[in-house]
């Protein structure tokens, strides 16, 4: 399931984001009639997990954090309570992608998303008398 999240996050520029989100500037979080930021009167259900691991508050690099939680939640695993080590996860996901790539290359697998192979160009030797000079 994680393999479907990572390309989406990459293509949307999520990993390139370096500024905090200004929620009040997004239409989805504003009341359609007043234009004001939605307040607590618009409630929704929240599930609270005590002592959950969290990203450092001064860190804007949340790509690995989001990818790790996407994997945990999509696989229905219990949310870990231990510290978050982004360097370890970068190495883990890098190793998994490398292993996937080598298996794909060894099996000579071509996905439907890859460009189709181009036919080999055929060159023919022209006979001198078949050529026409245009002046």
From TrEMBL:
PANTHER family: DUF1985 DOMAIN-CONTAINING PROTEIN (PTHR33022), UBIQUITIN-LIKE PROTEASE FAMILY PROFILE DOMAIN-CONTAINING PROTEIN (PTHR33022:SF13). This is Ulp1 protease family, C-terminal catalytic domain containing protein. It comes from Solanum verrucosum. The lineage of its organism: Eukaryota, Viridiplantae, Streptophyta, Embryophyta, Tracheophyta.
């Amino acid at each position: 399931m994680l393999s479907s999240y990572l390309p989406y996050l990459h293509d949307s520029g999520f990993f390139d984001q370096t500024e905090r989100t200004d929620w009040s500037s997004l239409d989805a979080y504003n009341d359609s009639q007043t234009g004001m930021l939605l307040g607590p009167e618009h409630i929704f259900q929240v599930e609270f997990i005590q002592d959950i691991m969290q990203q450092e508050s001064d860190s804007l690099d949340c790509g690995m954090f989001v990818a790790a939680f996407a994997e945990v939640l999509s696989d229905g695993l219990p949310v870990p309570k231990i510290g978050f080590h982004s360097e370890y996860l970068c190495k883990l996901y890098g190793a998994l992608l490398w292993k996937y790539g080598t298996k794909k290359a060894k099996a000579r697998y071509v996905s439907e998303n890859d460009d189709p192979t181009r036919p080999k160009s055929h060159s023919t030797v022209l006979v001198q008398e078949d050529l026409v000079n245009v002046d």
